[in-house]
Amino acid sequence: SENWSRNQHSYPSGYQGEGDYFQTGLFYEGDPLWEGRDWGGDTVVYVPQAYARRIKTHNLLTGFDWDILRTANRSASFQFRFSYFGSVGVNQGSIETDYERDTFMSWSTHDVRFEIERYYNKEGPHADLGEKWVDGALGWKQGVDYESPFEMGQYTAYYMNYDYSRERQRNFKADLDFQLDRYNRAKLGFQYTYFNLWSFGTNYKAEPLNPLDIYPKYPEIWSAYIQNRTDVGDLVVNYGLRYDGYAPKTNWGTTSYDPHAEGIQPNVQTSLSPRFDVAFPVTEKTQFRFSYGVFTQLPSLNYMLRIQTDSRNEYNLGNLGYARTDAFEAGMSYLLTNDMVLDLVAYYRDIDGNLATKEFFRDYYLWYTERRVRETHYGAVNRDNGNIKGLDLQVRKRFSDNFSFDLMYTMQFSRTTGSAPNTPSLEGNLDPATGEQYVPPDELRPIDNDRTHKLTCQFNYLFPDDFKSGTLANTILKNFRTYAAFTLLSGEPLLDIGTGNWTQFDNTSLTRDAAGRRVGGLNFFRGAWSYDLSLRFSKQFSLGAKRRVSVFTEVFNALNYRNNRPYPSGYTLEPYTHVTGGVDLVWSDLSSDNANLPRFNADFDGNGILTVEEAALGAIAQSVMDDTMDKRKWGRARQIRTGLELTF
Q1: Secondary structure (DSSP) of 588-643
Q2: What is the pLDDT of residues 33-58, one digit of tens each?
Q3: Does the CA dihedral 574-576-581-582 come out positive or negative?
Q4: Sign of the CA dihedral with 417 first, then 422, 425, and 431 last
Q5: What is the pTM of this model?
Q6: pLDDT digits (tens, 9 = 90+) for 247-294
Q7: What is the rounded distance in angstroms from the CA atom of residue 238 to the CA atom of residue 244?
Q8: Considering only CA atoms, which of 352, 446, 334 is closest in space to residue 390?
Q9: Contact at 8 Å (CB) between 92 and 52?
Q10: In angstroms, how far is the first alpha carbon of the chain from the final one?
Q11: CA-to-CA distance for 601 and 597, rounded, in angstroms?
């Protein structure tokens, strides 16, 4: 008989029946799915299942320090740095057919090779050169069968899209530090970065590359600052000003979709950021401080230079600028004892102009076609806003009397109109108080991952050398150290938009009404509290001079906390009685290519007859297996690690 797995009525997977579950990536000559392939002298081809990513980087850093002036009352120093960064990468692509490489501990001197790189100009097969796709016909091989324990599945064997990018970055930075007198210390500096970016992409359709879509970009980013610290005894004041700028230099919008880049008007973006803070004592043990500052953030160049490829694309029209955060902070430090400090900080941050992709009205002029356009457009804009407010309470004890600890409590409220550029609209919300539907255009909602309460505690204890001297306890516990880190977190918002963050499981039976509308809106409901305890134990032995060896044990998630996500349960047979069409199947009656053959792994009595009930039980087992395949959903289980550390 063939290499059947599990029992005599199990279906061997693969065209030639290797008898392995799941995808193997092996395809054999004669397989009808690969009939168009030019096999040459081969009888089997290996198509790697995983996509690969290849990134090469190189860095250079150089510079100098110069003490310009140094006297009893004044000093000045100058620092200059130049850095160069280069990167060439393929973000994602199908690995070359029949590709293998030797590795040493997963490391290899050979690059990962991609299938698309085998073709002229990386455009896919050229008929006049006699080239073909892997299977002889398609650049996107979907619907390839594979066997899992209780049913046949399908997967994508390869997908020939290919994105290539190259980045070169030159950075110049200079700083001058000047002690003006005994009361004032000034700093000023600048930074300038020049980018050379180039990228292109090909696809599974084997379309020739359009020169308009292979575009270089040369943006520049610069900044300058000046600040001064005034110290008049007990009162210390810092104040300064920062200037930031960005210039695209070229119109990045020239593409095959818009050859004249009429839809984009490049603009230089700048921002000014004043900052100020003051600290002063009230008593010998108490100090107050206050600070205000403006902090700006430029969206990533991925958005700043995003091009238009269709009429509804999240690209930058040239109006994207800096997001601004106004931050206020006030705090107090109090010396409880000689080795213990209490610190209390309250803060408020107002955020304006975060990146969002939304519809907005636009009035602009097309310089090439010479006409005015007034239309509603969808693209990237500085439209999201928010605020963060909260307080931190911390008690720290430095190491003394053989122990130290750090206890910190944070209460924080983070609200925003959009947690990400593509946050969905809030249509279909129900007011939890009135039950009425509302459509807020820009309502502040809790941000993703917002946790109102957070408590952390770190503890460290070292048994002294003379602990119970002369006893067995001294031999065991001398130089024995224990660490503990405990974290307690309140629940974060439940998500229903597929973020992949498994701690935010959304029970839609509670958070949606009968029509599927969100009760209370996005991020209204919260999950359960979570906690984590990690431990470390170590004992040190002296080997003479400066040589020491430590034996340690680390325990992560010592309490074995599991994410608040239920395991699959509540299955009944009735929904699964259709998998065989509601009839019993007989092994001997089925052809060798019948898709129901894998279901015979549920022929538990091995009589060659798969009853409707047996097939339903197998389908339930398959569903449970699929739903529990990704263990990240329940978090990291308890881990224990032991080892040795040698110091010399």
Answers
A1: GGS-TT-TTGGGGGG-TT-SSEE-HHHHHHHHHHHHHHHHTS-GGGG-PPPEEEEE
A2: 888 888 888 888 888 877 888 899 99
A3: negative
A4: negative
A5: 0.81
A6: 999 888 888 888 888 888 889 999 999 999 999 998 889 999 999 999
A7: 20
A8: 446
A9: yes
A10: 63
A11: 8
